[in-house]
């Protein structure tokens, strides 16, 4: 069904039975912001709504939202392989490994060659171990790490094992380096970028990240949040009008 305000083609949803929604998460929105926005748009229906795989607020791209009975399959969708594209900045570091926090150290990059950058990806392919960023949603003793980090508290980071099946450099325009990564569930791209900088005996932080695929689901097929929310509100108003005129 075509929404007149957005020119977007929407299917005939059955949210109570269960829908899988592909959403392009906006910049600076949390994954829970998206869930909340969609849940509120479905009122007065009282439905379970959840997402299959958190995206950091500063990341954009594919977020899978499940409603109704399909929320039981969230773990299955979340376990799927992910693909990301992004940009890192060489020659500097931040405590959060991205742009959430200010640069805390800078290093010269004039002697880093393109050959060294291309070569530095090799240790990060295959099964690797990494530590999550201190500024992350990982829970330790029931509390999110980023809560402790923002309070200046020390946190104990536990390494995890992940798989990076593809890692390629797609553009070099120092200090910027673009990349594409295909990886397993639970991979922290921010941590990988930080470790990549260390591999070059330098530093790096993430400046841009987009999830382009999750399993067989593609970002190119995703709805914009604003378009979907407007469509759902329009449908709600139509039903209200029908009720009022009955």
How many helices? The count is 6
Give the low-pLDDT segments.
241-246
Mean pLDDT: 87
Number of strands: 14
Strand content: 25-35%
Radius of gyration: 20 Å
The class by helix and strand makeup works out as alpha+beta
Shape: elongated
Straight-line N-to-C gap: 24 Å
Query: In sequence order, what are the helices and strands, one letter per element?
Result: EHEEHEEEHEEEHEEHEEEH
The helix fraction, in percent, is 10-25%
How would you sum up the major sheet? 10 strands, mixed
What's the oligomerization state? single chain
Could you walk me through the main structural features you see in this protein, from its secondary elements to its overall organization?
The chain has 246 residues and is of the alpha+beta class. The chain is built from six helices and 14 strands. The protein has helices spanning 31-41, 74-78, 114-119, 145-150, 189-199, 225-245; strands at 20-25, 49-51, 60-67, 82-90, 92-93, 105-106, 126-130, 139-140, 143-144, 160-173, 176-183, 204-214, 217-218, 223-224. β10 (160-173) and β11 form a beta hairpin.
List the helices and strands and how they pair.
Elements: E1 20-25, H1 31-41, E2 49-51, E3 60-67, H2 74-78, E4 82-90, E5 92-93, E6 105-106, H3 114-119, E7 126-130, E8 139-140, E9 143-144, H4 145-150, E10 160-173, E11 176-183, H5 189-199, E12 204-214, E13 217-218, E14 223-224, H6 225-245
Parallel strand pairs: 1-14, 3-12
Antiparallel strand pairs: 1-3, 2-3, 4-11, 4-12, 5-6, 7-10, 8-9, 10-11, 12-13
